[in-house]
Specification:
Distance between the termini: 35 Å
Helix content: 40-55%
Radius of gyration: 20 Å
Number of strands: 11
Largest sheet: 7 strands, parallel
Strand content: 5-15%
Structural class: alpha/beta
């Protein structure tokens, strides 16, 4: 099916192996051979998860880093050269609504800032949480609290810390019986870990694995924080131009690079996404093709893959880094996708439409190259 719709490379991971355990060469080759037997290639690992204890520098850090290095070496031995990862504490990516209705009958992922604040202040009950939100968001949240139902609270818990996390080797699985309590325990691990400490821990991790990356020519590419904002009292350190510049300069090795997720970066109104693509094309090893619209109240929603900003991003990478792995990302639920139980954001028909759009953009952009001008 994937070959029929124009896919050439696969982006996947060994999701059956728990976080922190070694990816053996045998398991890596099983996946690689399975993909190649179907006429495709394993282009990118997404993700080889970085365990929480590496991020907050727990007592197991050294053992976990050694396991990570062994997994990288096994990927290198198998000829898999690009590894996407993230350094987001506890929460991978966050949305409050997984089926926000569009006028045409499709639905998209949506982040409602006031609903997220309600989750933070009223469900988690995080100490000092209200101080992290502006007055307008708190006013919206307080109005919401007056009519919030038990079903509404359950929906927020499912959307924020279960359904978006369970399929990405996340910290909370879909069968977790006490997700809120588990989430509080995870947050507590980061007490005393501020922005500077998390940056130092990221630098320590990257310096430790770079010798393996150099030996096997593996490109590490960190995924930006999603959303690119400070949330839940946690430090977030891949949110903007300054952050990207910092981690690239902190470990100035060409194998230390960026996953340019236009969608994550565009969820922050402070980011000029086309400008960032131009600035960091040379250190980008992987591209996520999607884009978000930020609304005046701070909410954001996934936008069309034909958005002019995404066209500019694709143009930049087709010109500056032709052949860099690129995949379509979050797409709408459509044509019965909502009945199929797909992971949030990863519907088949919606992503097939997105692939067609991005493929069309790439074809048009390539006609602009001087060597293709008649």
């Amino acid at each position: 099916m994937l070959r029929q719709i124009g896919v050439e490379g696969i982006v996947t991971a060994l999701h059956h192996i728990p976080n922190g355990e070694v990816w053996t060469l045998d398991e890596v080759l099983k996946m690689k051979n399975y993909i190649e037997d179907h006429g495709l290639r394993w282009s990118v690992v997404e993700s080889l998860p970085v365990s929480e204890a590496i991020k907050y520098a727990g007592p197991e850090r050294e053992r976990l880093i050694e396991n990570y290095k062994e997994s990288l070496a096994n990927l290198g031995r198998a000829g898999v050269r690009t590894v996407c990862y993230n350094f987001m504490p506890v929460l991978d990516w966050a949305r409050t609504d997984l089926e926000y209705p569009n006028p045409d009958g499709t639905s998209n992922l949506y982040f409602n800032r006031a609903e997220f604040a309600y989750f933070d202040c009223h469900i988690l009950g995080r100490e000092g949480a209200r101080a992290d939100y502006d007055a307008a968001t708190l006013e919206r949240m307080d109005r919401m609290a007056e009519t919030m139902t038990d079903e509404g609270r359950k929906r927020l818990v499912d959307n924020i810390i279960v359904k978006t996390q369970g399929f990405v080797n996340g910290n909370i699985s879909a069968d977790e019986l006490r997700p809120v309590e588990k989430f509080r325990e995870l947050l507590a691990l980061y007490e005393g870990v501020d922005r500077d400490a998390l940056r130092a821990n990221m630098k320590y991790f990257l310096e430790a694995i770079m010798p393996v990356c150099r030996r096997w020519d593996i490109n590490m590419c960190v995924h930006p924080d999603d959303p690119p904002l400070q949330i839940l009292g946690l430090p977030r350190i891949v949110t903007c131009d300054e952050d990207i510049e910092w981690f690239l300069n902190a470990v100035p090795d060409s194998h230390n690079g960026l996953t340019f997720c236009a969608g994550s970066l565009s969820a922050g109104a402070h980011n000029d996404v086309p400008a960032l693509a131009r600035k960091y094309a040379g250190r980008t090893h992987f591209v996520h093709a999607r884009i978000c619209n930020v609304l005046p109240d701070g909410d954001f929603r996934e936008a069309s893959h034909l958005d002019e900003r995404l066209i500019d991003v694709v143009r930049t990478f087709e010109r500056e880094r032709p052949g860099v792995p690129m995949r379509v990302d979050h797409a709408p639920l459509m044509l019965g996708d909502e009945r199929m139980g797909y992971n949030a954001g990863y519907s088949f028909h919606g992503r097939m439409l997105a692939l067609g759009m991005v493929g069309g953009i790439m074809a048009a952009v390539n006609t602009e190259k001087p060597e293709n001008q008649k």
